[in-house]
Design a protein that fits this description.
By secondary structure, the protein is α/β, with parallel strands linked by helices. It is 29% helix and 16% strand. Helix 9 packs across helix 10.
């Protein structure tokens, strides 16, 4: 019902409730005909019209209006400057750029954390990292499993009648491990991807997991096409079953070994032959091979082209299936740019000039590209500086599909921003907190707080444990070059930030 509230005053030709967007075979014909007559008579979808619809017809008409398909693509360690729509100059990402050209580009969006596991935990639970159950990577991956008492994004969508699928790097447990570790234990109907986060360091694993079952691979198999095809098949089968779908694609690109399809790698070696003497090396789990990469500079460009091609395949499939205008596509990254496996973020300007990178609480480690496309619903080429983060995805999606937001939620729906209407509630502050170590109760040491980032208005506090707070005014100083913490003029601002840090950070 949330999407309906947001478009009550929109003209009939842009209202998601217009009969042309409904599946007529799933609704009583009389209901749809009468629905069209009322809308055309009124000219706009006013409150009175919706009251008439509720009184005269079945709830199914309105429910169908609030059930777009949702595709959420999550890149792995992709920096703020790694897409051409965010300023990358040395290669193009035309298909990903379509999401910006045909939708909305966010310039003030933050990942859940500065490393993989806790960032994904924030995305799935809607709890910011100052209060989330896990705030750092863990050596024993079973400790990353989402606790049973927390509702997850796919569970919310299943309540709304969605088919749910995840394809790629899960990062919240071993995918054929205990029930809570598996994506199926957290609300996903289907999963195809890596067995564990560590194994996802290589694109040539010995096996992958399909719906909880390990599938062995022939040596030398590049696994990405298998996972990508599974995501496409899931979308096709969902449409054929006339069911709305949530397709979550947490790709491993561009982390961390610079592995890419050989033809793309060779293409980019010809572009950057001066780097052929450089060898990229990385490691995966025990018993897993991570082939060295000749010219990892070329490898990175090839990986990004491979990812962009997959986005193009997704958009083409949505058009082929006739559901493009009823599908929301989102794209983000789990944290900032990395410098592993031979990747050179300085060569690529992967942070877009922002200070810091992965494992850092400066902007380069936590600010992420964020794109949202919904043809006919979101204005083309829109740009927003609305302050938002991963914990806002759960309430936004919940409102979009008319489901109650889980009680644990700490985020704010940004749906008014997407539709350009209504009052957008703003964050009083946004906190990201990074820990190192294990998790309470585990066989490894208790997590310990390492660093924090706090955004409030134009201000940013950077805090590394054991050191003094640093204060930056990001509108005037986007690259965090001038620490104002000791300036007498800003002591009141600093004191306010300290209060927010105390309020936002809950001990594990």
């Amino acid at each position: 019902m949330g999407v309906i509230r947001s478009i009550l005053r929109q003209p009939i030709n842009s209202c998601p409730g217009h009969c042309s967007s409904l599946d007529l075979e799933s609704l009583p014909m009389e209901a749809c005909i009468n629905f069209r007559v009322i809308c055309e008579k009124e000219g706009v979808c006013s409150v009175d019209v919706w009251v008439k619809i509720f009184v005269l017809f079945v709830l199914g008409v309105v429910a169908a209006c609030a059930r777009p398909n949702i595709v959420y693509l999550l890149a792995d360690d992709l920096g703020y400057g790694d897409l051409s729509c965010y300023g990358q100059k040395k290669f193009k990402t035309p298909n990903i750029d379509r999401l910006a050209l045909e939708g909305m580009k966010f310039t003030n969006h933050y990942s859940g954390n500065t490393v993989c596991t806790p960032s994904r935990a924030v995305l799935m639970t809607g709890v910011h990292s100052g209060k989330c159950y896990i705030r750092g990577n863990v050596w024993d991956e079973k400790l990353a499993a989402i606790p049973e008492e927390l509702a997850t994004l796919p569970e919310v969508l299943k309540k709304a009648g969605y088919r749910t699928g995840a394809f790629g790097k899960w990062g919240l447990g071993v995918t054929n491990g205990s029930q809570l570790e598996r994506p199926s234990g957290q609300g996903f109907d289907e999963f195809v991807g890596w067995k564990s986060q560590v194994i996802a360091h290589t694109y040539y694993p010995t096996s992958y997991v399909r719906n909880g079952e390990e599938v062995m691979l022939e040596k030398g198999t590049f696994v990405n096409p298998i996972i990508n095809q599974a995501a496409l098949d899931f979308m096709r089968k969902s449409v054929e079953a006339k069911k709305p779908f949530f397709c979550y694609i947490p790709t491993a690109i561009p982390h961390a070994a610079m592995h890419a399809p050989k033809e793309l790698h060779e293409k980019w070696r010809k572009v950057f032959p001066e780097h052929d003497e450089k060898i990229g090396r990385y490691g995966a789990g025990p018993g897993e091979e991570t082939p060295d990469v000749v010219n990892p500079i070329a490898g990175f460009a090839a990986m990004m082209e491979h990812l962009d091609n997959h986005v193009g395949e997704i958009l083409a499939l949505l058009e082929e299936l006739g559901v493009d205008e009823n599908t929301v596509v989102m794209f983000a990254s789990d944290n900032g740019a990395h410098r592993e496996g031979g990747h050179d973020p300085k060569f690529w300007d992967s942070t877009g000039g922002l200070r810091g990178m992965k494992r850092d609480m400066h902007e380069g480690g936590i600010r992420t590209p964020m794109l949202v496309r919904w043809p006919g619903r979101i204005k083309k080429g829109a740009v927003t500086n609305h302050l938002s983060g991963f914990h806002d995805i759960l309430p936004t999606v919940s409102e979009l599909v008319g489901e109650k937001v889980p009680e644990q939620n700490t985020g704010i729906s940004f749906m008014p921003t997407l539709f350009g209407q209504g009052d957008q509630k703003k964050h009083e502050y946004l906190l990201v907190e990074f820990h190192q170590g294990g998790r309470r109760g585990g066989p490894v040491p208790k997590e310990r707080m390492h660093s924090q980032a706090l955004r409030f208005g134009p201000w940013k506090i950077f805090h590394r444990k054991g050191q003094e707070l640093e204060l930056f005014h990001l509108e005037d100083d986007p690259f965090e070059e001038r620490d104002l913490a000791k300036d007498p003029k800003f002591q009141e601002i600093l004191t306010q930030g300290k209060r927010y840090l105390e309020e936002g950070s809950q001990p594990l």
